[in-house]
Amino acid sequence: MSDRTDAAPLHGIDPRGPRFAAGITALLLLIDVFLGLTGLSTAQAAEGWAITSASVAERFLDPAFLLLLVTTLLFLWGVLSPRTAPWGVLFRTVVAPRLTAPTELEDPRPPRFAQGVGLFVSALGLVLQLLGVPWALTIAAAAAFVAAFLNAVFGLCLGCQLYLLLQRAGIVGRARPASA
Question: Transmembrane residues, as ranges (predicted)?
Answer without folding.
Answer: 20-40, 60-80, 117-137, 143-166
